[in-house]
Amino acid sequence: MTDVRTTDAGVQFLERLLERSERNPDRTRPASAAPEYDRLSTAQQMGRFHDQMAAAERFGAVEVQRGKRDRGHLIERVRVRDPELLARHLGRPTAPAIAQRVREELLQVAATGEPWVATLLDEMTARWARSEAAYRLTAGQADASKEFFTLLASISRQEAQGLDARTFSQKATNDTKAFDRHASRLAAVLGVRIGQPGAAADVVWAHIGLERFSHPVNLRGPVVVKGAGERLVDGRARPFASIHPEMISQLSVLERPKAVLTIENYASFNRQVREIEDGSLVVYTGGFPSAGVVELLSKVLTSVPDDVPFLHWGDVDAGGVRIFRYLEESLPRGPRPHLMSEELAKQSGHPADADPSLASIAKSDSEIRALAEWLAFGSDVRHMEQEALDPAPTSEFGREG
Fold first, then answer.
1. What tens digit of pLDDT does each residue of 228-241 get?
2. Domain map of the chain by residue range?
3. Residue 266 pLDDT > 50
């Protein structure tokens, strides 16, 4: 019986040599390798391998170095002389040629998005030209890559906002499951795009406005939702009220709140609305703010005077700082930190490692840049969950300590 595994051992060997050449086209020494004679178990297989190396050498693709003296009948090493000739000898285009052809096909899709989508295509093409995968996609997976760029281009055009993943996937690609197939690579690309490499998927989806299904926004304060001449939701209800994002267009502010306070975690939100009566509008962000939370806050902040304090209370850690920064970047005006400071974290927090990924926030104009700098580069960093503190009135504007 023929051993299929070793029948084309010579072709496999030459393919590996070509791949080494393409992965490092600027190498100073040509790619080379020694034959694996232990895989050639018969004289017939060895003879075929030698014939294949000799044919490649005659074609000008490789240089064969034979052994000396009693090993003169064996091949010591094979070096690539000309990668393009080797590719032709193997009957396939070079990796750069394949990558360029795929790029031309995908550019028609990428060009429908924002410029950064085409830039990403160029970056992936450069990796394909070296026979490498890019975001776990190879140049041979043109259909999957087209689907991936179709989703990215649609996201860049803000077409994911307010949709659940399956609905968005259907609208963008005519396939409800396409998004799920590419979710991890989409999150990786978009995480870098929003300045948060490695961010959790739900953080990324919140940035692009994608929601599995919109959750109600929990709040307590002087706002109402009216419809058909009647009051549908009263934000002053105890302990708090819930407003669905689809009702935000009917929301209005009843009176000037003492402050607008957003709170990251549910336990702290519940304690704030139950224990503190100071006339503030308190909004639960649910961790990273959803599109509904951002929409509601945007409407509130454009409805109240600019001198109404806007505060945010969250965890003192990388996630809490990123949530704060997201609010700054997404709303008509940014918040001030409330009960979020280095001093409080040193008093009530626990030891933690510095996180240099916060450097971009530390170097920005953010209201939380000082805290971000300490968390990014401090020698005595401590993290603090906001539940470690009791709720406090907003009377001390922007209270940090």
1. 878 999 999 999 99
2. 4-89, 95-208, 217-388
3. yes
Angle in degrees, 0-180, between the axes of helices 115-128 and 95-110, rounded to the nearest 10: 170
Residue with tokens 């739900």: 202
Domain 217-388 has CATH 3.40.1360.10: yes
Q: Which three-class secondary structure state does DSSP give residue 233?
A: strand
284, 312 contact by CB (below 8 A): no
Q: Where are the alpha helices (DSSP H) in 111-164?
A: 115-128, 142-156
What's the pLDDT tens digit per position in 135-175?
999 999 999 999 999 999 999 999 998 788 889 999 999 99
47: CB partners within 8 A, 6+ apart? none
What is the model's pTM?
0.64
User: Tokens at residue 158, please?
Assistant: 């803000």
Pick the CATH number of 4-89 from 1.10.10, 3.30.420, 2.30.30, 3.90.1570: 1.10.10
Alpha-carbon distance 394 to 260, whole Å?
Answer: 9
Query: Chain-centre distance of CA 88, in angstroms?
Result: 39
CA–CA gap between residue 314 and residue 383 (Å, rounded): 11
Query: What pLDDT, in 10s, does the model give residues 78-93?
Result: 998 988 888 888 888 8
For 295-362, the DSSP string reads HHHHHHHHHS-TTS-EEEE--BSHHHHHHHHHHHHHSSS--EESS--HHHHHHH-EE----GGGHHHH
Q: 3-class SS at 223?
A: strand
